[in-house]
Structures are given as C-alpha cells and as structure tokens.
C-alpha cells in the first residue's frame, strides 16, 4: 500500500483555515470592494493554473513589484499553490536597485505595474526572465487578462516542509542585499505559533477582523498579518496605504491591528483616537522597529489598550512576543517579550560564552522559523551561523530572569526608518561615487515620526564645491525614497579612532541634536 505523505504546502494549511461559509467576506477594502473567500480560492486557482501553464522549472522565482492590492495577495497565494517561489520587491525601488535583485534572483517571471513595464521588462529580459506581466492597482493588466482564461479548479502542488516558498531580500548584517530563503515549513510553523499565542479567536468565540495597513512586500505585512488572518479564517480590512484617519474609521469594525511604531505615533496625532473609538478592538501589535516607551504609555493612556510588542527578522520570522494572555505575564514596554514557543534565544559575549541574565551581548537564535540560507550565498550563510546551529541576528540585547528580551542596539550597521531597513554602506557607496565627493558616512539619528532617520556627513575632494541639497537630489533620483537621508552636511573631516575607523557613534551624538546640524 502506498503511504500518502501529507502536503506541507503552506497554501493547503491556510485553505484549511477558511470558514465554512465561503460566500462570506474575506477582504473588505478601504475603497469599498468586498472579496469573498470563494473569490480568493477562484482567483488564486486561475493564477496558479496560468503560472503552471508556463512550463516553469521547479524552484522558479516569481518576482513581484506591484502596488498593494487584493489581486497581488491572490498572486502570492497562487505562487504558493503552484509550489513556486514568491519574491516580493518594494515599490520604492528604482532601476539600479531592481537591476540588482533581478540579476541576483534570476526570476523566471516578473510581475510589475503597467507604468514600469518599459524599464522593468528590459531588465528582466536581459537577466533571462521568460515572462513579464503587468498588474495594476485598479485590477487591470496582462496578468489578470491572461489568467481569466484558466480554470477555477486547481490541485495544490505537493511540497515538503523545506521547499522554498519565498525569498525576502534584506540588508542583513553586512554587504549587499541578500535573499533570505524561507520555506513552507518556516512560514507555517511561525503562523501556527502566532495564532495560538496571540489568541486569534475562532468563529465560535466571535471571530476576529484584522486591519491590514502595511505594505505586502515584507515579512510584517505579507506573512505575520496575512497568514494570521487567513489561517484563522478572519476577515481583513484592507487599507491600500496607511492613513491614520482611515484606520481610525475602521477600528469600530475590527479587533486586531498590526503596525510599525510610526503608525502608532501617527495615530496618536489624531484627536479622534479615544477609548470609545477603539472599544471593539482586542489587540494592537507593534514590531519591525523599537517602540518608544512614550508611545507605549501614551497609547495606554489614550486608549486603555497595552500595545503588544514583538520582535523578528526576515531571516527568522517572529522570534519573541510580549504575552497576550495576562496569566502568561504582563506586556512590558521597552521589551520585546520572551522567546516564542519553539525558539531558542541566547545572548552571547564577544568571547563566545552565554552571558548571565541581565547582561548585554549578541542575540543568537535557533528554531523552526529560521531560514534556509541566503540565496546563492552559501559562504555568507555559513558565516551567519555558529558551529552549533544558532543564527547570529546582529541585534544586541539582554534577557531578564523572567525571560523577557530587551533590544538595546545593533552590531550591524543598519538604520531602521519607519520600519524600513536602510543600510548605510549602500548609501555611502552611492554618495562616494558622486562628483566632488571624497568620502561620506551615513548615520541614523532619532526622529519623532520615523523613529530614526539618516543623516549623510560628507567630505568634499580638495577644491571641489559640494552642495548638500544637490547630493540629496541626486540620491532621490536613484534610490528608493525611504533610503534617502533626510539631512546632509558637508564637513572638513570625519572623527576616527586609532585604527582609522570612522566613529559613527560620535557622528550620531553630534547630529542627534537639531542645533548641531548644519542642514
Ligand atoms: C516614506 N518615506 C520614508 C519612509 N516612508 N522615509 C523614511 N522612512 C520611511 N519608512 C519618505 C517618503 O518617500 C517621503 O519622501 C517622506 O519620507 C514622507 O513620506 P510620508 O508620506 O510621510 O510616508 P508614507 O507614505 O506615509 O509612509 C510612511 C509609512 C511607511 C506608512 C510609515 O514607511 C510604511 O508603511 N512603513 C512600514 C514598513 C514595514 O512594513 N516594515 C516591515 C518590515 P518625499 O517627501 O521625499 O517623497 S518587516 C520587518 O522589519 C521584520 C521582519 C519585522 O520584525 O516585522
Ligand atoms: P528585517 O531585516 O526587515 O527583517 O529587519 C529585522 C530587524 O528589525 C531586526 O534584526 C531588528 O533589528 C529589528 N526589529 C524588528 N522588530 C523589532 C522590535 N520590536 N524592536 C526593535 N527592533 C526590531
């Protein structure tokens, strides 16, 4: 008798979470459209059939740079269904950035906005992609036109837990952007743990409704939010882009909200944010960047809710979370909570030994969410793991006696601005290539809205006149807008230590004071 191996395809598990009534609303958009669970099934089947008709090889990548839309969500589900690898890319990326990702990942299929078809298709065909489709916010484009001819029935591709489901490009700890390879097993195990620890409510318990306000090209919006809702059969209220007034309008119909700290800061700026406005809400979750203690306490005072802060990475998905259930402990502001079930987390001293609780060191982790390695970079992958299989996060923190983790800094040179990662070395590379520039250093300084923003400190070549505004304008024409430093200053020299290394901590201190900036 042949033994049937269970299908580890993530889509199969998400599908199992759908409610019995497939005609109920799965996604309601801020522009007033309703999509049923049946719509998600039908459209993802048609798109999966289209992808399968292309005769792609196993492991083919589907690179997607499109505006947020429910159809983009359907394309993600279709890619899972077909057992192919989803590769989402920020809509902010411009041509030099896209050229790198496409060259590196060599996707078989690229899906882009119609308005970018000219330049994106050129990059894609040069890199050997076989197909470029378009998908626009308004449900138009060649992808949906082609899919319309395909059947609504589709059998979900058989997958093993380690088969890749997605590649997420991340700045990682050093070097150029790297593709973190996440498997069906990584994504599903994390989604299941979060469903449990965040108390997602079954239909019998009254159900949940999630306000989905984040972009869908990163772990937070694509995996944590979407998998949470779909696995639980919960409706999503879908905001095409975050706007605090729109989010407020929907709080009375929702129960769960997930955001990066900037979203909470902007919501606190609304006079309509009151206890009354959020009385239907069950849970507010924050992550992707440090939540300031004042945001945490202001939120408590204004709404009566305690934000639940959690911590994760593209390479690991979610690692720690403050407790949802009070019997498991309090949500402590400034901490990211204890390690999630199944996650081993340790804090290591420089010398390679675990530090006593309360002491600071490098955070290392092991667990079912930890990725399969960096795309095409086996040496880089090996460097980021210890000999006993722990992943080095590049975050610096401590664990208290109750197991609560506090992140105190990063050993990686990284700025997190409004929840987006900016890698200073990349920006410095672009600045240093500009005419008249001898050298530069980009540092992150505190910012009330984005948490942290970049400042570029530049040295001109002897005799060259360099204009800070001109530098920023040139960066803006080349780089994703969130990477462009908010300020630029030209100085005579950069502070260096005895080894000649630029002392970024001194620059950070100097330019953190508004009066210290010549911008
Ligand atoms: C926009 N700008 C930014 C940012 N966003 N600058 C720095 N940092 C940003 N995050 C630029 C705009 O291009 C504009 O420039 C100017 O700043 C003001 O833009 P604004 O209209 O205020 O921005 P927005 O369009 O309202 O966007 C802000 C935002 C957005 C809603 C906070 O950045 C956002 O959705 N962030 C969420 C990121 C996220 O999902 N991260 C999760 C990563 P100009 O005026 O020059 O045009 S996943 C992750 O980190 C891990 C795994 C985890 O733990 O979750
Ligand atoms: P990414 O490369 O987008 O996956 O970003 C992962 C990084 O975001 C982590 O290594 C942390 O530095 C940071 N991060 C995520 N969540 C938090 C949090 N709650 N507090 C502080 N930093 C966070």
The CATH topology name of the largest domain reads: Rossmann fold
Average the pLDDT over all residues and give the rounded result. Answer: 96
Using the coordinates above, name the CATH class of the largest domain. Answer: Alpha Beta
Specify the CATH architecture of the largest domain: 3-Layer(aba) Sandwich
Strand order of the biggest β-sheet:
2-1-10-9-11-12-13-14
In helices, the fraction of residues equals: 25-40%
Q: Show unreliable segments.
A: 515-519
C-alpha Rg (nearest Å): 23 Å
* DSSP summary, beta strand count: 23
What small ligands are held by the chains? Answer: methylmalonyl-coenzyme A, adenosine monophosphate
Major beta sheet, specifics?
A: 8 strands, mixed
Q: Any descriptors?
A:
binds adenosine monophosphate, four-stranded parallel sheet, Rossmann fold, alpha/beta, 3 domains, eight-stranded mixed sheet, disordered C terminus, single chain, 519 residues, binds methylmalonyl-coenzyme A, globular
Summarize the structure.
The protein is of the alpha/beta class and 519 residues long. Helix content is 29%, strand content 24%.
